[in-house]
Amino acid sequence: MIWLKSLNNRTKEDVYPERNAFSKAWCVFGPVIAYYLVDTLIVKLCAMLIKNVALSNSTFAIFCEEKSSLVSVMVKLLAMICGTCILIPMLYKEKLVIYRKKEQAENYILVAILGVAAALFFNLLFSMVGFTEKSESYSQVAQKQFSLPLLIGILMYGIVTPIVEELIFRGLVYNRLARNYNIILAIGGSAALFGFYHGNIVQAIYGIIMGLLLAIVYEKYGSFVYPVILHGVANTWIYLCMSVDLLKKYILNIASLVIAGIIMIISFGIMWRAKND
C-alpha cells in the first residue's frame, strides 16, 4: 500500500503527549462511549416524556401509535445531535482536514460510484444468500427504517447519519488509532467498531466491510469529505432501492449483483492505482 501514509495532521505532538497503554485505549474508545451514553440517555428521556404526554393526551397517543417510525427517527435525530455536540471539543483538537483546494471533481465521482456499487453488491449478496432473513433484530430495524416518508428517510440516513458516524469513526477513532498505533490497525479497528456499533449481526458484518472501504478512502484522499460522500450515497441508494417499488422491481436481481460487483472492482482498482494529489 504505497499510498498508506500519515495524514498531515497525524502527529502525536499536535494533540497528545506520549501515552501509556490505558490512555491510548481510552482516547480511542472514549469518544464512542461518550456518544453512546448521551445518545442512549436522550432516547430514554424522550421515550419517558412521550409516554407521559401520551397518557394524558389521547390525540397525541394516537399520533404516536400511527406514526411510531417517524416519532422514533425524530427522537433518534435529536439524540444524535446531542451526542455529536459532546464530541465537538475532541473534534476541534483533531484538526480534521475537511476539504482541500486542489480536490478534483473526478475523485468525488469515483468515490460516489464506488459507494453505490459496493452498497448494492453487498446488500444484494446478503439478501440472496438468505443472510438478512436469519436476523430478527435486523428485520425489525429495517422495517422501521424503510417505513419512513422518503424525504425524511433520505435526510436521516443519507445525510445526518453519514456525517455523524464519519465524525466518530473516521474523524476520531480512525485518526486516534493511526496516531497512537499504526495505519493497518486504524483501518481494521475503526471498521470493527463501526460494524459492532450497529447492534445486530447483519449490520455488523456489512458495517465492517463498508467500514474498511471508508477507512481506505479516507486514508487515500486525506480529507473528511470523501468518506462522507461514499457513506451518504451508499445509504441513499440502498434506501431508495428498498423504498421505491420501481427500483425494487428492476434493481434487486442477480444481474444487478453482477454489474454492481464489476463496477465496484473497477472503481476500487482505479482508486487504488491513482497517484495521490
Report on the structure:
The chain has about 280 residues and is an all-alpha fold. The chain has one domain (about 15-275). The chain is globular, with a radius of gyration of 20 Å. The model is unreliable at about 5-10 and about 10-15 (pLDDT under 50). It has helices at about 10-15, 20-55, 60-65, 70-95, 105-130, 135-145, 150-180, 185-195, 200-220, 225-245, 245-250, 255-275. The longest helix has about 35 residues, at about 20-55. Helix 2 (about 20-55) runs antiparallel to helix 7 (about 150-180), helix 4 runs parallel beside helix 7 and helix 5 runs antiparallel to helix 9. It starts with 11 loop residues before the first helix and ends with a helix.
Question: Count the helices. How many?
Answer: 12
What coarse outline follows from CA principal-axis ratios? Answer: globular
Assembly level: single chain
Number of spatially distinct domains: 1
Mean pLDDT equals 85
> What is the number of beta strands?
0
Helix content: over 70%
Largest sheet: none
Q: How far from one another are the termini?
A: 16 Å
Radius of gyration: 20 Å
Note the beta-strand portion.
Answer: under 5%
Unreliable stretches: 5-9, 11-15
Order of helices and strands: HHHHHHHHHHHH
SS-based class: mainly alpha
